[in-house]
Amino acid sequence: MPELPEVEALARFLRERAVGRGVAAADVGAISALKTFSPAPSDLLGRELTGVERHGKWLDVTTGPSGADDVAPHLVFHLARAGWLRWYDEAPRTPARPGRSPLALRVRLDDGAGFDLTEAGTRKRLAVHVVRDPREVRAIATLGVEPLGPEFTVERLTALLTAKNQQVKGLLRDQSVIAGIGNAYSDEILHAARLSPFALTRSFDAERIATLHTAVLDVLTDAVAASSGKPAAELKDAKRRGMRVHARTGRPCPGWDGVPCGDTVHEVSFADSSLQYCPTCQTGGTPLADRRLSRLLR
Predict the structure, then answer these.
(1) Residues 91, 48, 21, 46: is their CA dihedral positive or negative?
(2) d(C-alpha 59, C-alpha 247), whole Å
C-alpha cells in the first residue's frame, strides 16, 4: 500500500507535470471506485488543474473555478492496498469502460498527457471522490496529526501515547491518530527506535517517547527524500529497496551503523497482514509469538 512517502512523491510528480493543464477527459472504468455522484467526474472537464495536495495517504487534485460564483471541484483519491497511478506522456484516447480491467479512472489532459488510476486483484478498495471540499470525505476530515508537520512535537506524541493504552504498532497505523503511516513504515520506525511492536503505549517513559519521535521523523524524512524526483513507475521498487525489516522475513537484520546485529528478521502473521521485526534489536532477543503459526502447529 502506498504510504506517506510514496503519496507525497506522487503529489510532487503530478504538480510538476499536470498543474496548469486543462482536463480533456475523465472516464470512470470501475463504478465501484467512484464514491460520490455530485459533482460528477464530467464536472472536471475543461477545468485547469491548479494544485495537488496530500492528506495522509490521500491525494487531492484541485481545479480552478469556471466563474465568479463557482466552487471548483476536487478530485480526491486513495490508492488503497493494490492501487496505483500510471502516468502517460501521451495518454490513450480510448475511453475507459466499466469491465474487468484494472482501470478505475482515466484522466486525459489538454496537452495529450494524463494518468490512470488502476487497482490489481479482486478486493477493490481504491476510492475516488469528486467533492467541493476534501473535508467532505470523512476519512480526510478525521485524519490525525501530520507527522512531518510542525504540530507533530514530542509533547503531541506524548499526549497521543498516553490517551489510550494500546500496542504502539496499532497506534502508528491509526489514521485518526497519526496520518500517513501504514504497515510498512510502522515496521521501519519501530526498528529504528528499537521498540517492540507490541509495547504498550502507556509504558513509555520520556526517553522512549523522544526516541520514537526521532525515529518517525528520520524514517519518513529519509523515505520522502529517497522517493523525491522519481517517476511514478519507479516508486514501488524504490520503496522495497529502502526497507530494512519490512517484507524481509528470514533475511539478516542490517543492524545499525553498517554493522549487522547477527539476527534475522522475524515475522508475526495475522489474518490479512503481517509485521516484521528483529528480536535482537527490538524485543531483547525474545521472538514474539506468531499466533497463526501457533495454531498450525497444534
Answers:
(1) positive
(2) 25
Question: Between 228 and 210, whose confidence is greater?
Answer: 210
Mean predicted confidence (pLDDT) in 230-235: 87
167 domain-assigned: yes
- 18 alpha carbon, distance to own chain's centre: 21
Closest C-alpha among 272, 232, 244, 273 to residue 185: 244
Alpha-carbon radius of gyration of the chain: 21
Alpha helices in 19-111 (DSSP H): none
For 157-186, the pLDDT digits (tens) are 999 999 999 999 999 999 999 999 999 999
Distance between CA 284 and CA 118 in Å, rounded? 42
Structural domain of residue 122, as residue ranges?
A: 4-141
- pLDDT tens string 62-74: 999 987 788 999 9
Distance of alpha carbon 152 from alpha carbon 135, whole angstroms: 21
The verdict on residue 203 lying in a domain is yes
Q: Taking residues 88-100, report their average pLDDT.
A: 86
How far apart CA 241 and CA 154 sit, in angstroms, is: 29
Q: Are 187 and 277 in contact (CB under 8 A)?
A: yes
**Which residue, 82, 112, 141, sits at the end of a domain?**
141
